[in-house]
Amino acid sequence: MVSLNQLEKSYALGASRSWVLRRITLDIKDGDFVSIIGPSGAGKSTLLHILGMHDSAWTGEYHFGGQPVHWLSATDRAALHKKWIGFVFQSYHLLDHLTVYENLDVPLSYRDIKKSERDSMVCDILDRFAIVGKKDLYPNQLSGGQQQLVAVARAVIANPRIILADEPTGNLHSTQGREIMELFRKLNEGGTTIVQVTHSEANAEYGSRVIELKDGWLVGAPTA
């Protein structure tokens, strides 16, 4: 599904460059559950946002589902992202002025889906995630765990091929964090590919593969 070849990202720093990612070569297959670990500043979140097509300022090759992302226009990248990628953020990123129901409808509203079909999809996901009773509440009326549950539901409502999660339990207490990770496990068992960035060794163990970054390099990859 995902193939990276010699992907790099850097910033100009005076007459030199500051490297964030170096020569990243990586393949992620359909159905993988990949945990990306490493110290702060290793480039984990940057890599995840490149995978999610939020960041286009990089060099190298990136293929997604056979599409050469490195050759696509910004418009085509955005369309690919909306169709196939769900993103879960540490800070939830729910829209405060919208209810739970309306937040779940947002990713569907970007697609050519009739309102009646969208309503059916939102109702299905509310039932699937056992949050029907929360549908008319606003994010500030929910606990952190409930907000992240809604965020995960929003990420999966359009049946993405892959979910990218950036420290998805970072703002949750341990019980809430385990609930979210068990939810990811079930989604993965149902066929959804998941890539998560985490500082937690316990969370990393949910993955079928663990990838470590250090100073922008994949640990174990050649650095010369």
Topology:
Layout: E1 2-13, E2 16-28, E3 33-37, H1 44-51, E4 59-64, E5 67-68, H2 74-84, E6 85-88, H3 100-109, H4 115-128, H5 144-156, E7 162-166, H6 174-189, E8 193-197, H7 201-204, E9 209-214, E10 217-218
Parallel strand pairs: 3-8, 3-9, 6-7, 7-8
Antiparallel strand pairs: 1-2, 1-4, 4-5, 9-10
Any overview of this molecule?
The chain has 224 residues and is α/β, with parallel strands linked by helices. It has a single domain (2-218), classed as P-loop containing nucleotide triphosphate hydrolases (Rossmann fold, 3-Layer(aba) Sandwich). The chain is 34% helix and 27% strand. The strands form two sheets. The chain has a six-stranded mixed sheet, sandwiched between helices. A hairpin with a 2-residue loop joins strand 1 (2-13) and strand 2. Helix 3 packs across helix 4 (115-128) and helix 3 runs parallel beside helix 5 (144-156). The chain is globular, with a radius of gyration of 18 Å. It starts with a strand and ends in a 6-residue tail after the last strand.
Biggest beta sheet attributes: 6 strands, mixed
Question: How many whole angstroms does the radius of gyration measure?
Answer: 18 Å
Helix % is 25-40%
Q: Count the beta strands.
A: 10
Which CATH architecture is right?
3-Layer(aba) Sandwich
Which runs of at least 5 residues are low in confidence (pLDDT < 50)?
none
Average pLDDT number? 93
Number of domains: 1
